[in-house]
Amino acid sequence: MRATIVAMAAMLVLYAVWQLLDPLPGQRWLYGDVFFYPVAAMGSWTAWGAARRTRADARIGRAWLLLGAASVSYLCGDVAQTIYELHGDKPYPSAGDVFYLAFYPLVLLAMVSFPSPRRTAGERARLFVDLAVVAIGGSTVVVYVVLGPTAVAGGENFVQTVFSIAYPSGDMVLLVALAMVLLGRAPASSRTALLVFAAGLAFFVLADLIYGYQTLHANYESGDPVGSLWMVALALFAIAAAAQLPIDKREASAVGGRQQPSVLPYFAVAIAFALLVYSERKDNVFPALTLHVIAVLLAVLVSVRQYLAQKELLRAQGELTHQSLHDALTGLPNRTLVFDRAAHLLARARRTRDRIAVLYVDLDRFKEINDTFGHPAGDEMLAVVARRLASVARPGDTVGRIGGDEFVLLLEEVTTDAGPELVAERVLEVLAQPIDLRAAGERQPVITASVGIAVGDGGAAEDLLRDADVALYAAKCAGRGRYAVFESEMQTVARERLELGLDLRDALTRDEFQLVYQPIVELDSGDVTGIEALIRWRHPKKGTVAPDAFIPLAEETGMILPIGGWVLRAACVQAARWRRQDHDIDLFVNVSVVQLEQDVLLSQVREALKLSGLAPGALMLEITETGLMRDAEAVAARLCDLKELGVRIAIDDFGTGYSSLAYLAQFPVDALKIDRSFVSGIAAADGSGEALVHTLIQLGKALGLHTLGEGIEDEDQLVQLRRERCDSGQGFLFSKPLAVPDVELLLERGERALPSELAIFAR
Ligand code: C2E
Ligand code: CA
Ligand code: CA
């Protein structure tokens, strides 16, 4: 492009110098034509290049070919003109005129061929009005300055008259083409090229008009300075073509560009004024009325155009506001709007003494839906949830989505105390229905939600929503799939939890964790055959904190990863020491599914085994059933990797996780630890507890697994489990979890020492 600019500038300078020096007086026509050859030729050449660069988009390529053809046509016209001048006779019209005239429709065709963006109906209407303004305003000027007088003057014959009128008519065509370039939103790769081209067109029309005017008054001669305007125009065409950027396949036909402010209305107003002034002039050959009508027409068009533009703007603004306040996926109000509405409702509630309620709805384990069925299914589910929530709301209530799987219901004018609770129950009910998801195929995922409720009659929206969030948290802790109403104590609980989380971060470095060990007894013999490591946190202020109070928190914060690693190392080192002292016991260690999911468990186990020298076969990893079910397939694969190390795997809290048999068989597990709730249910009067334990043990046996009963507290339970031929057991009946010295005492006394105190083993 730079080369083209330099070449064109050089030609223009040369032309100007020639004009000034005028070395061949009387032969002006010669350079009037000849200087145009290289410029027009260059234009054809660069247009050809542009066409090649834009082949990927047929329409743009075609446009440049047409523009190239226009340049060629102009060149031919010039050559013809030279030949006539050389022969000294200048017929009018001549073949040269035919070539010159072909230039105009070719340019128009090219402009039409340029792709334009998809427009809305409003945009189309405005474009139409704009083009009308240009056509009417522009052509009025052309008609008054040149076309009209030319037509009135007439030629020597009909053909001459037609040709004389054809030129200014061509200019009107170019004006429309110019408007199309300036109004159309060009593809990014053509933007500069088209702007330069528009400048060229402007010069061209200007030259034509001056030329027409001069000819009319019979004072034009070939080679006159006005000719330099055409040359500038042709040079700009050449530069424009050179400025066209290449298009690759990807961006082909992607039309875009920003909308530019338009000067068109001012142009139209200026012309309307000019017409009014002109109509008063003496030399005006046209009826004043026509001019007035055109002026009024232009004014009307400008008004229509401004109206359309404003409407468009308002619509776009409205859309933007909507977008910024609504969630794209569900169309529900977003966090900003929800907070805003809550603030409004609260402000009104202060005056009317009404109460408003916030229901904070959070889907339970939504991440699992995403993991199992994929994100499209997750998105679909959110949309369904949004619809169902909206169906629960009354008119006037607001349903919003304020985060990933978090929704809020704002209830206006809560009258009865139970109002929000009833709505919460409805929410839980409608969400519990199975959901048909296209992305999930045949499977119908079920989702539950937890709901936190807060009621207020004033105060800040932030506070009310935070209270609902705290209540939501309480509902989650209470086991999910339920609602909880905010109480001020919850606030304390939430704060304590926050503090606990902070303390937890430092607990490892401050060496505040400790392991206790609970013996596992073979039910047949009463021998202690294993020991389960259980973590304790010696909190500097709170004393001993039970794992149930901090393990879930550690799992949420990710602290479970280093903590779990420490448990494995400490337990393995301890168990290896006991085994070296000839106590043949297995070590049971609880691991969190988070360790498994984050893919750290394998390396942690390997490290602990290496550090301690513990035989892999002596290590039993306990993973809770609910943990296993979270992402069953991935978990199964990782368990296989673990088993290759030689360690064994037990399902902890078995019976609480609703795992299907199909899944169970797929996990490479060795033992089932039957949950305490079943063991303590054995005493049920109707025998249902016994039946359940029976079934669970039989299931384990059918799968060839070791069975273990947890939480054995009394002899009846022990008797029953022995009757069912459960392999081993654990519970307060045998021993509470013990500190290391107590374990050692127990082991020193011999493996049978502890259970043999029970009469049942003596029998
Ligand atoms: P769990 O794995 O089911 O461990 C058994 C829990 O039941 C222990 O509570 C134990 O003290 C208690 N228990 C044992 N026998 C009886 C009995 O006869 N009656 C009653 N009522 N309870 C009995 P603990 O130590 O408070 O642990 C609670 C849970 O915390 C564990 O349940 C386990 O899921 C988790 N946990 C403990 N230590 C760790 C650990 O190092 N890592 C991980 N990830 N989780 C751990
Ligand atoms: Ca356990
Ligand atoms: Ca358990």
Any overview of this molecule?
With 763 residues, the protein is α/β, with parallel strands linked by helices. The strands form 2 sheets. Strands 6-7-9-10-11-12-13-14 form an 8-stranded mixed barrel, surrounded by 4 helices. A 5-stranded mixed sheet has the order 2-3-1-4-5, sandwiched between helices. It is elongated. The N and C termini lie far apart (105 Å). The mean pLDDT is 86. The structure holds ligand C2E and calcium ion (2 copies). One calcium ion binds next to loops.
Give a short synopsis of this structure.
By secondary structure, the protein is an alpha/beta fold.
Give the ligands present.
Answer: ligand C2E, calcium ion
Query: How many individual helices?
Result: 29
Estimate the strand proportion: 5-15%
Secondary structure tally: strands: 14
Trace the largest sheet across and list its strands: 6-7-9-10-11-12-13-14
Question: What would the principal axes of the Cα set say about the shape?
Answer: elongated
Poorly predicted sequence stretches spanning 5 or more consecutive residues: none
State Rg.
44 Å
Q: What's the pLDDT, averaged over the residues?
A: 86
**Major sheet size, sense and barrel closure:** 8 strands, mixed, barrel
The helicity comes to: 55-70%
Determine the structural class based on helices, strands and strand pairing: alpha/beta
Cα end-to-end separation: 105 Å
